[in-house]
Design brief:
Layout lengths: L6 H4 L6 E6 L2 E12 L5 E11 L7 E7 L3 E10 L7 E11 L2
């Protein structure tokens, strides 16, 4: 895993599977979408994951593993998705000043 996560870390991995280790076991999430919110002096992006509704978990810091990216710790937040009641969505957001 890169030292510093950025949008490019996740580019090319939309549709791939990430495993989240929760207290009740592992949950597989699919990377659904990456959105760039960056501005002139601000690096900002969000990563949206999709997973099964029956294995939902609360927001918090989780160990996440990907076959190509390795292990990382992400703060995941459940988000509402009006499109699909059978799935649960989680978001990871980065917002920091550009160096």
């Amino acid at each position: 895993m890169p030292e510093k996560l950025n949008k490019e870390t996740f580019d090319g991995h939309v549709g791939s599977t990430f495993e989240v280790k929760t207290e009740s076991g592992a949950v597989e999430l699919e990377l659904a979408k990456i959105t760039d919110h960056s501005k002139e002096n601000l690096e900002s992006f969000s990563v949206l994951f999709r997973g099964p509704k029956d294995k939902s978990f609360d927001q918090g810091m989780y160990k996440v593993t990907h076959s190509a990216l390795g292990e990382m710790e992400l703060f995941l937040v459940p988000v509402v998705s009006p499109q699909d009641d059978d799935e649960r969505y989680y978001e990871f957001v980065v917002s920091r000043l550009k160096e």
